[in-house]
Amino acid sequence: MMKRWMGxxxxxxxxxxxxxxxxQNGTDDTESMVRMGRPEAIDQGQAPEPFEEGTxxxxxxxxxxxxxxxxxxxxxxxxxxxxEKAFLDELHQGNQHEVELGQLAQRKGSAQGVKDYxxxxxxxxxxxxxxxxxxxxxxxxxxxxxxxxTDFARTMERAEEASLAKLQSLQxxxxxxxxxxxxxxxxxADIAKVMAGQQQFSGNAGLQALLGDTLPxxxxxxxxxxxxxxxxxxxxxxxxxxxx
Length: 244
Known about the structure:
Blueprint lengths: L4 E2 L32 H5 L23 H8 L5 E2 L2 H25 L3 H27 L12 H19 L2 H29 L4 H35 L5
Antiparallel strand pairs: 1-2
């Protein structure tokens, strides 16, 4: 049976690590973690375009989306499963993905800062996953890979696979910059998902504590990737032909 999702819709094309998940200039991460809309509009500091109902998502095309899911998207939060186990499965998969990317950065990063950042990802997300698994066991839940059984889930899965394939094909400073850009986008999405979980499962004290412990580390990861990404542009400019 298909899982019920809180808001099975996406505003426009959602691209992890791209302009559709971008920092809102002039705000901190507590105010707006994810902005969805046209990348060029976001880059110019414009507000996201208003969400139009019936433009996609789970179910047949043109089906009005879940009103609560639309509200989440307007707040910059990602739709999440309404079932607790399905949500935990997604968090578990996210931790494993970040560990994999951290290991990739340790192998392929050309800047020491990128290698060190990759090591931190591995350490922190392994610890986060251990806490998650401990919580799941207390709830008598066995976590597994999420099933991509909605349009939204399939879109996210394809974006994740494409991002990993791109990173695996790059070398040197090109890898460093693409990896850090992906980490900004990935952690924007991770933060938005956790924040949505805090709203969805507001009556679950145990899960609230787990999510509350997770959020600060995700924000630190996001900010560190953003700072390192800013350092990559001058570094690569110095290495460019004719650069100083």
